[in-house]
Amino acid sequence: MQIYWTKINQIIEETPEVKTYMLDCPEGFTWEEGSHTHLAMKGFNDGDKPNKSLVRHMSISTLPNEQSIGITTRIRELCSEYKSILGSLKVGDEVALFKTHSNVPLKRENKNVYLLSSGVGLATFRPLVLEYLERADNVSQIHSLNIDSSRDFLFTDIFKSAPDRKFTAQYVDRREDYYDEVNKLAADQDGLFYIVGSDEFLSQNIKALSAQGIRPEQIMLDKREKGRASFFPSELTV
Q1: Residue 212's CB: how many other CB atoms inside 10 A?
Q2: Which of 42, 69, 102 lies at the terminal end of a domain, its last residue?
């Protein structure tokens, strides 16, 4: 397993509880839109076995052409040991990256794409939107729907509607409003639906979409095959 040690070059305060850590790109480190990586704190591999409490699975919120690896996460006042350590890091401090993979690259199948997210889950979709805005080939249009009860909506500079580019962005702060909108979007029986959020959020969205006739193959999750199977057991191969 290749471990890339790298330094923080900037810390951006997106909202009072959300920060983006911009990391130097180590030589040989590559990724694409929709990628996640494992972000580890110093000391995670000091013993015989990795200290899993010092490692988290994180989405990369930037594209390679931005020349920094962005990690966007929420750090509350009361948080885990991992988030507490992350929140104390400064520019110049080192972290490790490994096991980078994309489960949700932008599909170019001449269909409408719907991005459904909760809170900071929007970070996973930021590079997909940038990729689309840079090259819209074989994507009919993109609509983003995000729910965040804090009302501190993220990335409003990018997630803003651009009708001329067939991109629309929508934020809501109430669960009822969110699922009303999901049901409306599901009227597109040929669309592709990407979902990012907690497992509970994924389950609720899958249930809502399925009730409207959306098929499992139209639903993209930021999960590897094994993780996806827990939401779509019918997809398990014999």
Answers
A1: 14
A2: 102
